[in-house]
Specification:
mainly alpha, Growth Hormone, Chain: A
């Protein structure tokens, strides 16, 4: 663990390759958000089925489970830039695939499986891009600047999460193809930016591929109570309270708006996330980080309950902003703990496991929310999820005392 104080503000952008990576991440996040809003609205508009929305998340989650044993070692053994380039290219092809499906009328009310197939391929690309990208950042900035870099990364990503849904919601009325064409262009520009990042060889060399190597990330996390507690807390909270899959239902059936309303709802958590991330970028947390993470998860649960009880879109917006802000503080704490507690030669594998246990929990949470809404109703499903996140924060405070007592990075 570095004893140097973290550097805040915009100083991290003096590293040119980090700036290129950061803006590339913004663009592929922008493309993903435009595409996500368009796919969700399109599927619900032709099916009116909450379970069909949940299946979108499941299609993204399925490839991440087996690939988690491969994506981490790949990030540790091979040029992370090349992995990211391949992922950007694949994402652009998926955008073209959505256009082709709609142009040739492959998707109908009772036949949406082609959409799930393209989402599955997109999930494969995202599974490889996350560990490669997060592991690459550590080679682009000094260790003491990583907390600031992590906050800026999340700020750029959440800015994309604000702008992307708004763009997707506004483009959809211009034609069903428009959002996917815009997403494809974003992926292509991200490809060009990543291509300009200088090659940096892996310092630890290329370890041999063995079963022990593939499972090393899981073993390391299991033996690190602080990392295990932080990752599993996020997994459980997001799995239970992941109501984003239900936003098309709130937008169309409860708040009675159109695609613009869905775009607005999707963007609001990211407004809170950006505000929190910018604050953390300039004023990194210095004390009580374990307790602050637990409190933020509890706030996340309370805000989810408040959103579920909202009957008007204007009443729901503040709760969504709080959800995003609380989640962002938790994310920055978790990501920084993982980076500083993990040896450099293990980061790719540990980040891969982190991705499957937290990043993909968003998609699995979307499936859980869609299935629960199908079974008991939309509003009860959201309320149950928020209560579950509250209970998880209280339980994890007792199960993982090392995490609760952690003061600094």
């Amino acid at each position: 663990m570095s004893e140097k104080r973290p550097t805040g503000g915009r100083a991290v952008f003096r590293h040119v390759d980090y700036a290129r990576y950061s803006f590339a991440r913004f663009l592929w996040g922008l493309g993903l958000q435009i595409q996500t809003v368009a796919v969700a609205w399109y599927v619900y508009d032709i099916t009116s089925d909450p379970l069909a929305l949940g299946m979108i998340g499941l299609a993204t989650f399925i490839p991440a489970v087996p690939l988690s044993l491969v994506t981490g070692p790949a990030a540790d053994r091979y040029d992370r830039r090349v992995i990211m380039l391949l992922c950007c290219a694949t994402m652009a092809l998926c955008a073209a695939g959505f256009v082709a499906l709609m142009a040739f009328d492959f998707v109908r009310a009772g036949q949406v499986w082609p959409v799930y197939l393209v989402v599955f391929v997109l999930g494969v690309a995202r599974s490889f891009s996350n560990p490669a990208g997060q592991a690459l950042v550590m080679s682009l900035v000094p260790d003491e600047e990583y907390p600031s870099a992590a906050a800026w990364n999340n700020s750029m990503n959440q800015t994309a999460n604000i702008v992307g849904p708004a763009i997707g919601g506004l483009l959809f009325p211009l034609g069903v193809y428009a959002p996917f064409i815009a997403a494809g262009l974003a992926f292509l520009v991200a490809f060009l930016l990543v291509a300009r990042i200088a090659y940096r060889p892996q310092k630890a060399g290329k370890p041999p591929v063995t079963l022990a190597m593939l499972a090393a990330g899981y073993k390391f996390i299991w033996r690190s109570p602080i990392i295990l507690g932080a990752i599993t807390l996020d997994l459980v909270a997001v799995l239970l309270a992941g109501a984003t899959a239900l936003l098309p239902i709130f937008a169309r059936d409860i708040f009675e708006t159109g695609p613009w309303g869905l775009g607005l709802l999707r963007a609001m958590p990211s407004v809170g996330s950006v505000a929190a991330a910018l604050t953390l970028a300039y004023f990194p947390l210095q004390a009580g980080i374990g307790k602050k993470m637990l409190v933020c998860v509890a706030i996340y649960g309370l805000a989810t309950i408040g959103f579920g009880l909202s009957s008007h879109i204007l009443a729901a917006i503040p709760f969504l902003i709080v959800i995003g802000a609380a989640d962002m503080v938790s994310v920055v704490i978790r990501q920084t703990l993982i980076q500083v507690e993990t040896p450099p030669e293990m980061r790719g594998r540990v980040v891969a496991v982190h991705t499957i246990l937290t990043g993909t929990s968003n998609q699995l949470g979307e499936f859980e929310s869609g299935a629960l809404a199908w079974a008991i109703g939309v509003v009860p499903a959201v309320l149950v999820g928020g209560a579950g996140a509250l209970a998880a924060a209280a339980l994890w405070a007792r199960i993982f005392p090392d995490l609760r007592k952690r003061e600094t990075y």
